[in-house]
Amino acid sequence: MMGRIRKFDFSSFSDRAWSSFSHDLGIDLGTSNTLVFVRGKGIVIREASMVARQKRTKEFLAIGNSAKKMLGKTPANIEAIKPLKEGVIADFDACEAMLVKFIRQVHQSGRLIPMIPRPRVVIGIPSGVTEVERRAVQDVCLSAGARKAFLIEEPMAAAIGLGLPIERPEGMLIVDIGGGTTEIAVISLGGIVISKCIRIASLKMDEAIAAYVRLRHSLLLGETTAEAVKLQVGSAYPLARERHLVVRGRGLEDGLPKSVKLSSTEIREALSPVVRRIMDSLSQVLEETPPELMADIVKKGISLSGGGSLLDGIDKLITEETKIPAWRSKNPMEAVVLGCGRALAEPSLLVKVKLSDGLR
């Protein structure tokens, strides 16, 4: 006769023990893109931070890259929106739906499997957000299915992801240009000494290009086209060989289709006000940096991360204006999420850099 099956007491499990069964996540919840890192697997999700839903019923129709394809092409009863604006949550429900989808995608099921514990999540947030905005990010992660949600400031996460020795008594300067915010921070001894967060970054560059083309050429461009122009002919520094691109949009004068040939010189002019704001903020941080840390920064250089750092020539411009070498990693868009992933793997590091205990 078979003996009685004893019921296992899961409540005796420690958080570390649960983590050995769950798919713990590092998330870069960006204004433009969301990247998800799974402990032991690496980066598994790279999706646009966008959702499409019915206006009347609020039913979500598409999330991520599939929703981005709908941008500017939806009928009146459907809206394609970005749940985050300038680095903070603008639409809680849409952001929650997006995170739920990504977490479930990691668990490879239509719903979270009951026997697999909910994941711990480490998520990067802008250094300049308010306590209310921090709480909103943590709440949306917990509502989306996280067991615990730890917050890390994005410049710190980027520095960790770039492999900088953040715990040493040495000064390091990082400039993280994301979609909605630009983070500039001096780091030493595992903490941020000086930081500045401005809500001007890649999306403002796209808006500047669209505004320039509208005023100079009387041509109306959509967000997706403006972004494509930035990526293909945009630059922050004069190029050895200037580039050109033909774009199509709607003429403002007659409302008919219109084509215009744009040069990289024109787009550099369009981007100059946005780039200048970033450069001015960098100069302010350098002016406030203690002399001993400045000596380290001059020696090590300025580290660039974020999708906005891919703008052609921005490293050269920073080097020329600050007289400090600026370098960009091979995959700057991955720096923040890789930093969150490393914090997951190193509990002692997470304790030093986290902004919360992970619970409500």
Give a brief outline of the structure.
By secondary structure, the chain is α+β, with helices and mostly antiparallel strands.
Could you describe the 3D structure shown?
With 360 residues, the chain is α+β, with helices and mostly antiparallel strands. The protein folds into three domains: 20-156 and 336-353, ATPase, nucleotide binding domain (Nucleotidyltransferase, domain 5), CATH 3.30.420.40; 166-200 and 271-329, ATPase, nucleotide binding domain (Nucleotidyltransferase, domain 5, 2-Layer Sandwich); 203-268, Actin, Chain A, domain 4, CATH 3.90.640.10. Helix content is 37%, strand content 25%. It is built from twelve helices and 18 strands. It has helices at residues 15-19, 65-68, 92-106, 131-143, 154-161, 202-217, 223-233, 264-288, 291-300, 314-322, 335-345, 347-353, and strands spanning 25-29, 33-38, 42-48, 51-54, 60-63, 78-81, 84-85, 88-89, 120-125, 148-153, 172-177, 182-188, 191-198, 219-220, 244-251, 257-263, 302-305, 326-328. A hairpin with a 3-residue loop joins β2 and β3 (42-48). It is flat.
Number of strands: 18
Domains, number = 3
The strand line-up of the biggest sheet is: 3-2-1-9-10
Provide the CATH superfamily of the largest domain.
Answer: ATPase, nucleotide binding domain
Low-confidence residue ranges: 1-14, 109-113
Overall SS class: alpha+beta
CATH class of the largest domain, named Alpha Beta
Assembly state of the chains shown: single chain
Strand content: 25-35%
Radius of gyration: 22 Å
**Which of globular, elongated, flat, extended, rod-shaped describes the shape?**
flat
Q: Tell me roughly what share of residues is in helical segments.
A: 25-40%
Mean pLDDT: 89
Biggest β-sheet strands, sense, barrel: 5 strands, mixed
Would you give the CATH topology of the largest domain? Nucleotidyltransferase, domain 5
How many angstroms does the end-to-end distance come to?
48 Å
* Element pattern in H and E: HEEEEEHEEEHEHEHEEEHEHEEHHEHEHH
| CATH-derived architecture of the largest domain | 2-Layer Sandwich
Compute the number of helices. Answer: 12
